[in-house]
Structure formats: C-alpha cells, structure tokens
Amino acid sequence: MLSISPTFPTPNTFHNRYQISMSPRGLLLFGTNTNLIRCARCVYSRKNAYISRITTITTTASSSSSSSGKKNLLQQQLDSNRIKNRRECLPIPTAIIAVKSAGGGDENSLYKKLEVDFETKIKRYTKFEMISCPQNPKNEKGIEEQKESEGERVMKKIDSRDFVVLMCERGQSYTSERFASDVLCKSGDLGHGRLVFVIGGPFGHGEEVRARADVSLRLSEMVMNHRVARMVLLEQIYRAWTIVRGEPYHQ
C-alpha cells in the first residue's frame, strides 16, 4: 500500500522562517537574507500533482485487478461449458459427397488450401474423405432430369449402413453443440458404418437421394456458393469434434 507523507513547514515555523509578499504571480516567500525561496503556488501545485499521480496509479491498479477478475470469471464459465458438452464419441468414419462442376474454377487454390487444412484437422479424430460426383453427367436439358442423373451417381457412393445427412436449404437448423451431439455422436452410437454428408448440385437433390436421407440439415437461411458451403461444413465437422473432446477451439 502506498503512503504519501510530504514534509511541509508547520504554520508557526512557516511564519518565523519566511517573509511573505504578494506579487502578480502569487504568494512569494523570502528568507531572512531576502533571497527568493519558493513560490507557494508551485509548492502546493506540486503537492497536488503528486497526490493526483498516486491516485491515478492506485485507480489503474484497482481497474486492472477488476478486469483480471472478470477475465478469470469468463474463463471459468468457458471451461464449465466445455466440460458440460464433452462426451464419449466413437470415431465414426466420415465423408462428404459433393456434386461438383467440371470447370477448373472449382479447384481454386484458395478453396483447395482451406479444404485440405480442415480435412487434415478432422483426420486427427477419425477417417475422412471428400468424394466428388460430376454435375449433370448426362447433359440433361431439364432441371428434374439433371437432378435425377446427379442423384444416381450420388446413390452409388452411399452404403446401406451409412448415416446420411442431406445438406438442404429447407432442412433443420442446428446449433454447433446440437450438431455435435445429435449428428456426430448419434451416428456412431447407433452403430452406423459411416457418417455421410451430401451436397447436391445447383438445383438441389433428386428424389431418390431425399428419400435415403436420415437427416436434412441447413447451414444457413441464406443461400451460399457450394464451395463456401463445403468450407462451412468442414469447419463445423472439425468444431463438433473439438466440442465432444472438450477442446478450447469452440468457446
């Protein structure tokens, strides 16, 4: 604890030792030899500045301590949430089946780099693969025919023991925590051979694929580019694993 004890002359000593004179600059003190000793205004200004400086230091220290306490409380809450969401989860093999354009733009280096980054992170927890199906493989003119031809290719990639999640703008909205428990963990708990996410072409999914889905899920109420959708889905799969493992990635 800091204490302030500046030494100033007592009133009696003050009057005995100094002669007092007024000037336009304030109160002047003269010693017996008439030399200027000090401006009283400066004395008390320095005293006040000293007190103000100490007060500022004390206030800053108090504020810092309060801020540190709030951070510690927040960290405790985050740790508690991680513990609450943590649970046992079988490392069920996971795959994303995506209908992709044959154009070179789909392999843009930025998107590809992000895909590989998240795929590598997911593989720390379980087997993972990205499977591509061609867009409009039969060059159909009608939209329904195109969806069905894409659906045929998708169905060839799906096994009877797979837990299939259809990515659809009319699907259900999940929080990240619910996605981790009701999709990632549930698929393993029910004994499925693989967790499969299906991203359709530009016009959606064929009827056969819709009928095969165990869950329909949407990433957002907004429509997004299919490459962006893959990025978001990959990130959420990785996030789901960090949630069930109680790791700090998900705050």
Instruction: Choose one word for the global shape.
Output: elongated
Beta-strand residue fraction: 15-25%
Give the uncertain stretches in residue-range form: 1-8, 13-41
User: How many strands appear in the DSSP assignment?
Assistant: 8
Strand order of the largest sheet: 5-4-7-6-8
Distance between the termini: 38 Å
**Overall helicity:** 40-55%
Task: List key phrases describing it.
alpha/beta; Alpha/beta knot; five-stranded parallel beta sheet
Structure commentary:
The protein is α/β, with parallel strands linked by helices and 251 residues long. It has 2 domains: 1-85, no CATH class; 94-244, Alpha/beta knot (3-Layer(aba) Sandwich), CATH 3.40.1280. It has 7 helices and 8 strands. Strand 6 (162-172), helix 5 and strand 7 (194-199) form a beta-alpha-beta unit. The longest helix is centred in the N-terminal third of the chain and has 46 residues, at 40-85. The protein is elongated and about 85 Å long. It starts with 10 loop residues before the first helix and ends in a 7-residue tail after the last helix. 20% of the residues are buried. Residues 1-8 and 13-41 have low confidence and may be disordered.
SSE layout and pairings?
Elements: H1 11-17, E1 19-23, E2 26-30, E3 36-39, H2 40-85, E4 94-100, H3 109-122, E5 128-134, H4 143-155, E6 162-172, H5 176-189, E7 194-199, H6 207-212, E8 215-217, H7 226-244
Parallel strand pairs: 4-5, 4-7, 6-7, 6-8
Antiparallel strand pairs: 1-2, 2-3
Helix pairs in contact: 3-7, 5-7
